[in-house]
Amino acid sequence: MKKIISILNIDFLIKQDSFRNWRMIFFISILALVMISSGHSADKKIFLIASLNSKIKALKSQFVENKTKLINLKKETNIIKKLGYKGIRPSSKPPVKIIVQSK
């Protein structure tokens, strides 16, 4: 019972050899601050990773959308439609093959 009362009266911090106890309390306090700061740093990194993942998903969907548009624009039927008003249409004759003979 006396030990509990002495702890509650904070006798261990007032006595002559209390310097050892203060060092331990200071060390534990520093460790607690380091743990708290590392926890906050980890939380910031988690939020940053989540926001970057959402940006990656948006960019991937934009890439797929643009790739689909490009594929549709490169189709022969679309090219014929777009160039038809200028009078440009596909050739009805096959291309002529040129053979070069070396001497």
What can you tell me about this protein's structure?
This protein has one domain. It is 69% helix and 0% strand. It is built from 3 helices and no strands. The radius of gyration is 39 Å and the shape is rod-shaped. The relative contact order is 0.04. The model has no long low-confidence stretch (mean pLDDT 88).
Class from helix and strand fractions: mainly alpha
What order do the SSEs take from the amino end to the carboxyl end, as H and E?
A: HHH
Report the major sheet: none
Whole-angstrom Rg: 39 Å
Tally of structural domains: 1
Report the sheet-strand fraction.
under 5%
Mean pLDDT: 88
- Count of alpha and pi helical runs: 3
Q: How many β-strand runs?
A: 0
Distance between the termini: 117 Å
Low-pLDDT segments: none
As a percent range, the share of helical residues equals: 55-70%
- Overall geometric form: rod-shaped
Give a quick precis of the structure.
The chain is built from three helices and no strands. The protein is mainly α and 103 residues long.
Any descriptors?
103 residues; single chain
Write the layout of secondary structure elements.
Blueprint: H1 2-8, H2 18-73, H3 76-83
